[in-house]
Structure formats: C-alpha cells, structure tokens
Amino acid sequence: SSSTTTTNESNFIEPQKLPVVVEEVKQQEESIEEIKTKEEEVLKKKEEEDVTINTNKEEEKEIDTKTEEVLSVSSPSSSSTTTDIVFDLPQKAIELIFSFLPPSDLLNASLVCKYWNLVTQSNHVWEKKLGEEGLEIVFNDKLIEKYETPKRIFWCLPRIRFDGLYMARDDSNYRILRFYEDDSIALSVVTSGFDLNKIQNWFVKDSHEFAIPSGHYLIKRNELKFTIRSQSGKIDYFGSSSFDSLVLNVHSHINNSKKENILFQFVQFA
User: 0.70 cut: is pTM over it?
Assistant: First the structure.
C-alpha cells in the first residue's frame, strides 16, 4: 500500500507545472519530426544520386557499344549501314571520333553531309587541334572575339607574334628577334643591361635607325625556319613555335658553330 502511494506521488504533476511539461513534450515531438524529415531528405538525395550514376553509366555503356559498332564496320559494301550507325551515335561520340582526324581530313569530312559539317565545326574538336599544335595557351576571350571560333583560330592565327620581340639569353649576350607580317625578320645581339625601349626603336622599319641584319622566315604549322644575313656571313635558325615562345637550333656559317634548343621568350612592346 505504501509503495502504491509512492508511485502515484511520483507520477503526479502539480497543476502549476503542467504548461511547462506540455511545452517540453511538444518540443520533443517537433525534434523527432525534424529528425525524420532530415532522414527522408538524405534518403531522397541518395536515391537521386544513385539514379544519376546509373544513368551516366548507361549512357557511357551505350556510347562505347555504338562506337565499337562503328569501328567494326569496315567493308566498303556496307557504307549505308555505317552511315546509319553513325547517325545513331550521340554527337559527343562522333566529335570524339573526329577529333583524332588530321585537320585536312576534318575539312573533307565536313563535305559529306550537313550533319557531319555541323559536327566538324565543334569547338571541342578544334580545341583539341589547337592543343596538338601547342596553342592551347592562346585560347582566350580576346581571340574568340577576333576570330569567333576555335576553328578560325586554328587556321587564321599566326604561329608567331608581331607586336613585340622574342628574346633569348646566349652566354653573356641576348639574341633579339622581331617578325614582320611581310615574312621578313630582323635580329640583334646585345649585351646584358641593355635599354629595351631603345632597342624597340631599332626594330621599327620606317625608322632611320633601322640597320639590323635581316632575312625572311618560313613557317608551316608550328615549324619555323629562317636565315639571317649580314656582312660577316649567314646564320640559320630552325625549330618550333608556340606563339609566345620559340625553341630554335642555330647554325652559324660564320664560324661553323651550332647551338641547340635555345629558348626565345616573347616580350610585348610597352
């Protein structure tokens, strides 16, 4: 009897405390509901991620399968079948295949049909071609504004710059080159500590100071070669160009000396 009385007393809530207890119970219920809501959101997000992953895997598998089908069709008599399969491929898959073609073959492919012409204009294809030429560093907003597309940048962009000088350290001296748009070139060799602003004036063709050994250059894609002639003799330069830098080998016929892999860095006119 005494134990029953004790239990009843412990479960008894004083009337003045009842609102507080009710509020606590209400807060607990809200917390539980909030936890359930968050758990449902996490589960929903995980389900969406799983669906996205599965969708991507299915798309990749479909691209791989169709690409294998295209590559496996090699018989000339099945050209119509090949065309049908190619048209069924996603455009990104066709762009990937075309990106392995040389630029001249891309131009030929663009004549096959309107769809192939559209695909061969793809920025992704010509960005890859620019990268193969070592010209990815020049792909920027200013060039896009001037040339409009990566394809036009590839075909129209000079592989050398005309708005400054190319300079290379050569022992205690510097070799300085300037290219002109009429295919001519000028060279000067100066000692360290030179005044760059003064030297820039030397390379202005209509200046009375222009009396620098010169010649003409030939550039095909990123391969560059030219010969500088002076009263002492001639010097041959040949190597590669990537717009902002040149890596050239030098053969002097004056003293029959050779130097390899001289790095010329571009310095824009102030």
Answer: no
Asked if residue 157 lies in contact with residue 147, where contact means CB atoms within 8 angstroms, the answer is: yes
Q: Determine contact, residues 92/66, Cβ cutoff 8 Å.
A: no
CA angle 140, 142, 148 (to 5 degrees): 85
> Quick one: 110 exposed, middle or buried, by C-beta within 10 A (0-12, 13-18, 19+)?
middle
CA count, 13 A, side-chain hemisphere, 140: 3
What ranges in 73-99 are assigned the alpha helix state H? 79-88, 91-98
Which H or E run includes 57?
helix 18-72
| Amino acid at the residue 126 | W
Phi first, then psi, for residue 250 (nearest 5°) are -125, 130
Give the tens place of pLDDT for each residue, 48-88. 777 777 776 776 677 667 656 555 543 444 444 445 566 67
